[in-house]
Amino acid sequence: MKLYAYGDSWTEGQGCDSEKEELIKDRLVLQDFRNNYSWPNYLSSLLKCNFENKGFSGRANNLIFNDVISDLRNGNIHKNDLVVIAWSSSLRDYVHFLPKGEWISWSSDELKFLPHKFLESYKFGDEKYNTFLERYKGFFLQNMFNQNYYNIINQNYIVFLQKILETYEVNYLMCDAFDLMVQTPNQSDDITNLINKRTYWEFSNKTLKDFLIKTEDNVWEIIKSNDSGISKHPNKLGYELISKELYRYIIENNIIN
Questions:
Q1: What are the tens digits of pLDDT across the range 168-201?
Q2: Which residues does 239 contact at the CB level (< 8 Å), separation at least 6?
Q3: What pTM does this model have?
Q4: Strand-by-strand arrangement of the 171-176 sheet
């Protein structure tokens, strides 16, 4: 059995040691450094198996979704392997109703507390166009933003991947890193009955971030004083605690056949 982990910065291991990370300029070297202190590394040790960390900082859910499918179709993942997916924020997916495939935000917290990052993003040099787009984004947030749009998409991501992983006889576990994938969907769009909750840690109830917030240990990365802290990542200890929690869940729920 081999462990394959998919996700964004929370899977890559960003924040494990912020001071040392800042000194590494080569992206591949930085990725290797983070992987050494990521939850996939710690989890593989607990499971006594090899692992491959497919997490990449800034990864959007649509890309994570397709990463898993590509590895299955290309024969990189085999029968009885374990796939763990830590979903990112839904708001990172490109949307078709904004120009040039723009996305909304890094996270729901950022959109809530720092909306100017969305409003002021993507300047194209045309002052009239930029002014219009910034005003329109404000109008969009006040009048048109709809979480249920993401509920519909995310339920489809989850069900498709669960079904295809089961078809390939691959063990799997899903979880939410810091934003809930499904948040109180409209009754007419609710297909959560099709989702296998046993193979989804704290489905629609808790994120890994929520789990860490409940701990009393120092589990967060060191951030610069001018940083808002909204996108804070775990440090080494935080990632280790995540691995122990996922391991507990895997064993107690017989995730591995």
A1: 999 999 999 999 999 999 999 999 999 999 999 9
A2: 13, 16, 37, 38, 39, 42
A3: 0.94
A4: 50-53, 2-6, 82-87, 171-176
Q: Which long-range contacts (CB under 8 A, 24 or more apart) does 187-194 make?
A: 189/148, 189/151, 189/152, 189/155, 191/155, 191/159, 192/155, 194/155, 194/159
Instruction: Kindly state whether residues 43 and 81 are assigned to the same domain.
Output: yes
- E strands along 60-185, which residues? 82-87, 171-176
76 belongs to a structural domain:
yes
- Per the CB < 8 A criterion, the answer to whether 51 and 73 are in contact is no
At 232, which CATH number?
3.40.50.1110
Residue 206 DSSP SS3? coil
Q: How far is 175 from 170, CA to CA, in rounded Å?
A: 17
Owning domain of residue 219: 2-93+150-252
The predicted pLDDT at position 8 comes to: 98
Q: How many domains does the chain have?
A: 2
Q: 257 lies in a domain? A: no
Same domain for 230 and 112, yes or no, is no
Q: Given the DSSP bridges, would you call strands 171-176 and 50-53 parallel, antiparallel or unpaired?
A: unpaired
161 and 221 inside one domain: yes
Please name which of 190, 158, 163 lies closest in space to residue 6, comparing C-alpha atoms: 158
